[in-house]
Amino acid sequence: MSKSALVIGVDRTGGLPPLSGAASGARDFADWAEGQGLSVTLITDENGQQVRISDLQSATNDILSNNCEKLIVYFSGHGFLLSPQTELWLLSEAPDLGQEAVNVRLSIDNARYSGIDHVIFVSDACRSGGPTHQHRSMSGASLLRIPKVYDFNGKVDRFYAARPGDVALEYKTPDEAVSNSKGIFTECLINALKGKIPDVVTQHQQQHLILSEKLGSHLQQTVPIKATDISIRLNQKPIAISESHLPLFFGELSAPPTMADPDADQPILPEGDIRLMATTAREGVSDIPINDGPAPEPPSSDEDAAFDNQVNRIVSARGRDRFETETGFTVFGDVDQVTIANGWKTETFEDNDAMHIRVYPPSPESTCSILIQFEQGFGTVLAVKPGFIGSVIVEDEKVISVNYTPSLGSKLYDEQYRHMADSIEEQRAFAATATRHGVLEFNKEGASDAASYLRSIKGKDPSLGIYACYAYQQAGQIEEIRSVARYMEDDGAVFFDVLLLARLGEPWPTFAPFCPMLRQGWAMLELHPPSLERLEKYRSHLQPSLWTGFTPEGADLIRNDLESGELQ
């Protein structure tokens, strides 16, 4: 069994300022990995070399063919978020070539089922928004091939240099030599991996190990301090998600550390605190199972207040409680026109400072897609679910929340939903906000707890189910996704996103809409090649948002295809 590292450093990519420390940081990490006895593949753009996705995929194919049991993937360079929880690492020919980027989300997912026991992803890259429409139109590609079977579930640890929406920083050493530029995150990481931080080291039998969990906690404490030490204006807070436990580990020391290195990164804890707590609501909610009720009261800050205000905004924006048809949408935004598949009839009207769309389904078992276009020209595509009323909230030309509630007076509402309505409203408002900030994730235990919650409510809250499925996907809980799919199928139709993440073979059961409703689903289309081929022409028209949004040109294209019957 082999142990390998794929180390990537890209200083230059199209449309963005060149970096000075990405390739050198990759070399430093590669030196450490070789000292660990790993088989290292180092790929950088030093000396005018080009880093291409085909080179990286060839390297991982070789690694997989060697019966690998541990793989560390390190990247340093430019990165950005396509949408919450969906990011790209940019390679040399990006953004001119849309595939010349690493689709991080899909790479992690494929790594989980690749047959490798332990995979570690380390990303010293920005996680802010794409700078241009050309960047945002990129799809990227997976580092690892899509598995043929999903009966293997490895442990995947993830280390990100920054929170979603933030930048990763590099700085120059005092001599200001370009060759001495360093990434703050990488420097702190390597100092710890070299044994300069005794508190990170765990003795196990005769070994002196650095475990991912302890390493992640150390980086979350020290990187912000390191950034502030360099300049009070700098702010960088990493994210670490660890699934591995002994006997799995990140690194090993040949001898025990004797004392702390005074030049290394030592955490400075606030007086009276036993550890540095998460300082924002976004961080503080990341590990809270969705069925545990509201998050604990976080420390006061502007970010916390913004998070709480968003939750309250979604809770308070309740849609119309019923239509005569028991089916429709309330939209908190300026609706321009509505196009629905299969020739279904709709009516649009305004009431109580909101727009309402009454839908006439031909039967309770029917389903289809609906395109809602707004006065600014952009549009979103949603599923019509008979017996349910969808509430859609639009802010800053983006759909930030969609939920489905059983129609008042329906059997489902009267017998089941009304008894837990307030709780469900709070849970999905929290899920929407946490997902938008990129922090709705379940660990293994949390995913199981949330699955129990979903079993208890079954089809009464399909919108919460879709959020949960994306969180299950990140936690490797494929059976829980399939369980949600079965529940939805019992109600007549399954959301596209759920079927995509469940990796079900052909033929798919009845589904709606024709595409993913959450933007992050578009980054996973490679999981279902027929959908990838069918939807490819719409990809370049996507907007950066939580829920799928299309540019005005894309919305017009979809409207024409719905009216012609090409889409349903």
User: Which class of secondary structure composition applies to the elements?
Assistant: alpha/beta
How many beta-strand segments?
A: 24
Largest sheet: 6 strands, mixed
Overall average residue pLDDT: 82
Cα Rg: 24 Å
Main β-sheet, spatial strand arrangement: 2-1-3-7-8-13
Shape, principal axes of CA atoms: elongated
The level of helicity is: 25-40%
Beta content comes to 15-25%
Number of contiguous helices: 16
What descriptors fit this protein?
568 residues; alpha/beta; 2 domains; 6-stranded mixed beta sheet; 5-stranded mixed beta sheet; 24 strands; 32% helix
Topology:
Layout: E1 2-9, H1 22-35, E2 39-44, H2 53-65, E3 68-77, E4 79-83, E5 86-90, E6 101-103, H3 104-112, E7 118-125, H4 133-136, E8 155-160, E9 170-171, E10 182-183, H5 184-193, E11 201-204, E12 207-210, H6 212-230, E13 239-241, E14 251-253, H7 281-284, H8 302-316, E15 328-332, E16 335-340, E17 345-351, E18 354-360, E19 368-374, E20 379-384, E21 388-395, E22 398-406, H9 411-415, H10 421-436, H11 444-457, H12 462-475, H13 478-490, E23 494-495, H14 496-502, E24 511-512, H15 529-539, H16 552-564
Parallel strand pairs: 1-2, 1-3, 3-7, 7-8, 15-21, 23-24
Antiparallel strand pairs: 4-5, 5-6, 8-13, 9-10, 11-12, 12-14, 15-18, 16-19, 17-18, 19-20, 21-22
Helix pairs in contact: 1-5, 5-6, 8-10, 10-12, 11-12, 12-13, 12-14, 13-14
